[in-house]
Amino acid sequence: MAPPILKLDDIFLSFGGAPLLAGADLQVEPGDRICLVGRNGSGKSTLMKIAAGMVEPQSGEVFRHPSSTIRYLEQAPDFSGYDTVQAYAEAGLGPGDDPYRVTYLLEHLGLTGQEDPKTLSGGESRRAALARVMAPQPDILMLDEPTNHLDLPTIEWLEEELRKTRSALVLISHDRRFLEKVSTATVWLDRGTSRRLDRGFAHFEAWRDEVLEAEELEQHKLGKAIEREEHWLRYGVTARRKRNMRRLGELQTMRANYRGHKGPQGTVQAQITEGRESGKLVIEAENITKNYDRPIVAPFSIRVHRGDCIGLVGPNGAGKTTLLKMLTGQLAPDTGTVKLGANLEIATLDQKREDLNPEDTLSHYLTDGRGETLLVNGEQRHVAGYMKDFLFQPEQIRTPIKNLSGGERARLMLARIMAKPSNLLILDEPTNDLDIETLDLLQEIVAGYSGTVILVSHDRDFLDRTVTSTIAPANPDAPDGRWIEYAGGYTDMLAQRRGALEEKRRVEKAEKAKSDSAAPASEAPKAKGKLSYKQKFALENLPKEMEKAEAEIAAREQKMADPNLFTKDPATFNRLAAEMEKLREKLTKMEEEWLELEMLREELEG
Predict the structure, then answer these.
(1) How is 117-138 classified by DSSP, letter by letter?
(2) Do residue 101 and residue 228 come from a single domain?
């Protein structure tokens, strides 16, 4: 095992009241891919800032290897003093770092580098900050919610980039699919302490449930042991004759441990207030279009029925929010018509959180300033009790919204829209800043909602678990305004798109093979109506060669999966990576050649 390049031991930190961190540990070794998970407010970002040297703990030990470099992705980067994004990103480079890497990263993140930092959107700010911290290829890369405000193509590119990096990673993210693909170890921050699982996030939830079940069983056993000791104390003959001071001391310790035990943080307990039933047809759009400097929506038609759950996906700038506003009547189309059904009661969660006034208190926001009660599912409830359902403490009733974390603001907006009667939910990036447990609740609410849901999201796992159909650009690499509705979630959409692409290629190759077979005799195979000997040989042997190439790729992938390989032998790591790239290119060419020959054989024999 390689020595750690970063180690936090028994970290304690409190901001008054209950400690935020009380004995938390974190150890990072070369090649680690650690995801840091826990509820909103459990101290994940604080622990990461302590590791990065930005916050000092009140007690505990912090060790950073003197020669190691650390870069930390802030949730709110500071661009002051920089005229361009390029200058901001290059400021993160150290002596000997390659300045071309900044250009490479900005290009792949969709930035030119000449943008004015003062005019950046939330997504552009996140991309610029990613370029700055990734460019130096530090020994430890700490990323706090790196996928927030990124579109799906960029998230998928980032996954591949992080899987190839030599940096050790510490990640905080709400995106399950992202964590599953990138992480190889999990640190769970819970009630101020940490537990480590040396497996990726895909195994975390089952492990967490086992830990909590074992903890509950231990508490049950402790309660029974206290009952036995108290019975002895009251009725035991020995106890009546002479108090056994040792047993009394043990009983007092057991009582203190039992009373002092804090169970896991509660889960959000809420259900949405459903309005009266809408008409069966909720939205009918006929050949709607919208153009700005380019086509945003080409002629598009859709019928949305009561109970549908529709997901909108696509790269930033493709026009998802524009299409959403057109479908809900907030924006008129250039041409075409949109008809909204009867009895619609719409509740909206806006991705920019524009509905939030930072100076409002939680109570004022939830009740619209009408006293300290609100109507939820036809029942009057005190705002403090309703807030508790969403894990807010009663003392936060007068807290200004500006003092809340991103996750707390997201929960507050959920609390508000769930209290309002609705039969059409519009959710624009609802998963931003939510912890995994609250995401689970939102998923259950959406899945069990009897009304209609239209949501925009870049969270692939959330889409797969909730939506019944997915609207995506026909050309995701270069959106041209054409949108297609696919049945099922994000994974289903990819499969259908892949199938359509393969069918298109098959038709094109069949047409090419047909035209080739109709070529002059001098260009045709020597034996008319049959494959040549060379073509037959290739058709029979290519599958074996493809199988061999796949085995060689798998063998190299297995070797490169060793997290210590790059540290111990970077030359071998680079050689294996180059060999894999060549093998993949070779495999692609063989697959195309085999498919072309197979189609030609079918054409000749048919």
Answers:
(1) GGG--HHHHHHHHHHHHHTT--
(2) no
Tokens of 596: 């072309």
Which DSSP category does 150 fall into?
A: -
Question: What per-residue confidence (pLDDT) applies to 523?
Answer: 46
Same domain, 223 and 249: yes
Q: Which residue has the tokens 């004015």?
A: 116
In whole angstroms, what separates CA 570 from the centre of its chain?
30
The per-residue DSSP string of 535-604 comes to HHHHHHHHHHHHHHHHHHHHHHHHHHT-TTHHHH-HHHHHHHHHHHHHHHHHHHHHHHHHHHHHHHHHHH
Are residues 353 and 448 both part of a single domain?
A: yes
Determine the average pLDDT of the residues in 41-53. 91
Do residue 436 and residue 537 come from a single domain?
Answer: no
Compute the distance between CA of residue 135 and CA of residue 507 in angstroms, rounded to an integer: 43
Cβ proximity of 465 and 447 under 8 Å: yes
Residue 51 has pLDDT above 90, yes or no: yes
- The Cβ-side half-sphere exposure at 160, using a 13 Å CA radius, reads 9
Largest CA distance in the chain: 116
Phi, psi of 597 (to 5 degrees): -65, -40
Give the residue among 61, 21, 12 at the shortest CA–CA distance from 41: 21
**Residue 153 token pair:** 């193509």
17-31, 108-122, 247-261: least confidently modelled range: 247-261
Q: How many domains does the chain contain in total?
A: 5
Q: How far apart are CA 6 and CA 64, in angstroms?
A: 5
The identity of residue 27, as a single letter, is Q
Indicate whether 247 pLDDT > 70. Answer: no
